[in-house]
Amino acid sequence: MLFNSVIYWIFLPIVWAFYFLLPHKGRWVFLLLASYVFYGFWKVEFAGLMALTSLIDWALVWAMVRTPKIGLKKLCVALALLTNIGLLFLFKYFDFALGETELARSMYHSPWTAWIIELGKFTVPAGISFYTFQSISYVIDVYKGEEQAEPSLPRFMLFVAFFPQLVAGPIERFGRLHKQLFAKLEPRWEDIRDGLRLLLYGLFLKVAVADNLASVVDQYYAAPTHFDAWSSWVATFFFTFQVYTDFFGYSLLAQGSALLFGIRLMDNFQKPFLAKSIPEFWHRWHISLSTWFRDYLFIPVGGNQRGPWVLAFAVLLVFFTSGLWHGANSTMIVFGLAQGVLYLFDRFVFKLVAIESWIWDRVRQIKTGFFFMMTLVYFRSGSMQQAQEVFDGLRGHLSGQRYSADLDLAAQVQAEQQGEILLRHLDIDPHIPLFLFLFLLMDHGLFKQRFDAWAETKSKALRWSIYAFMLAAILVWGGAVNHPFVYFQF
Questions:
Q1: Among all residues, which ones are annotated catalytic?
Q2: 82 and 47 within one domain
C-alpha cells in the first residue's frame, strides 16, 4: 500500500494502537505480521518471495557461524550473495540482459525454459532492490564479525520486512535497526509529536509538491518534440525537484511512521543542493544507498587507499552499479556513469581551483546542481532516443516552426494535416511553481534542522500556521493523480 493512500492512513493508527496494547513479548510478532500484510497488499507473491529470501539468508548465515572452517564460511557467504543477486537479476534484469537475442527467442519457444522468460517479464517486486541490499549487508557484517547472527528466523524476517522502510528505504544496517525492533519501548509524547510532524511534512512534499510537479513533467515527456525550448528547461528543472521532493517526502514518511513506534531511522537527505561538488552531493543524497556502496563495494575494491587509478576504477564501478541498481535500462547505466565521470572531474580537476569566497561557493553549488539536473534527463527518459529528443529541445534544435497557441483551430488542423509539428508551451497551474518556491525557501533557507526539530524551536502560533497551510495544500491542491513514489520501482 502507498503511504499517500487512504488505506495506509487507516492501517497505520490501527497497527500503532494494537502494537502498544499488546504485552511487550508479543509486539514484535504482531509487527512482523503487519509488515507482511503491508507488503502483501500489492501482491501476495511478493511477500512469499521476501519470506523465501529471508529464510535462505538466515539459514546460510546460521550455517556459516556454526562451522569452524574458513572455506565453508566463505561458501555460505558466496551462496547467500549468489541467491540474492540471482533473484534480483531474474526479476529485474533478466529480460533486459537477453534483449531480442537468438538465445532469448530459443528459450521462449522451449517448453523447458519458457517459464524463465515469463518470470523475467513478471512485475518487479516492489522494493526488491532495497530489502535485498539490506539483507546482503547483514550477511557480510556477520561474516566480518561486526554483528552477531540472529538465532530466530522470525526475528530476522522482521528486520528485513519492517514496513516503514521496507519498500524504498532507508537501507538500514542490522546493528542499528534490529536492537530497536526488540527494545522495550513505550509510547512517548515526544515521539508521537515528532512522528506526526514528519508525516505531515512528508505528505506535503509528496502530494502538494512532487505530484504537482509530476503532472507538468509527464505532460512534457509524453511528447518532448512538441514543446518549445523554454518548456524543455522548465520540465527538466521541475523533474529534478520532483525526484527530490518525492523521495525526500517518502523518507520523512518512513521516519515519521517508525518514530510513532519509538524507532529511529537514519536521515536519507541533508540538503543535497547546497553541495559544492558531486562527491559532496552524494554524501547528502540518498545517504543510505551511498554509504552502502561505500562500505560493501567501494572500499572492498580498493577505495582511495591504492592510488588514483584504483580510485577511478572503484568510483566508476560504484556508479555503474548504482545506475544499474536504479533500473534495467541503458539510460540508467548512462545516468550512473555520468555521475561517476562528474565525481572524478570534481575529485581530480575542479578541486584544483582553490578560491575562497562566498561567490565562488555559490558558483560551485550552481555548477553541481546544474550537472546533476542534466544527468537526470537520462534518469527520466524511457530510452536513449527520448533522452536525445529532450537534449535537442534544451538546445533549441526543434523541428517545429510555429506555436500552436498562436494559431486558430483551423490553422492548427491544417498544419497537422501537412505533417508539421506545432510547438507549444507547457500548461502550468500557478500554484505549482508557488509550492516549489516555498519548499526551496523552507528546505534551503528556513530549516537549519530537520523539520520536527525546527518546529519545536518556534512559537505555537507559527507552528500551527505552518501545519494548517500544509494540510490545506494537501487537501485542496494535492495532485489530481495519485502518483506512485518514484523509488517504488526500484
A1: 326
A2: yes
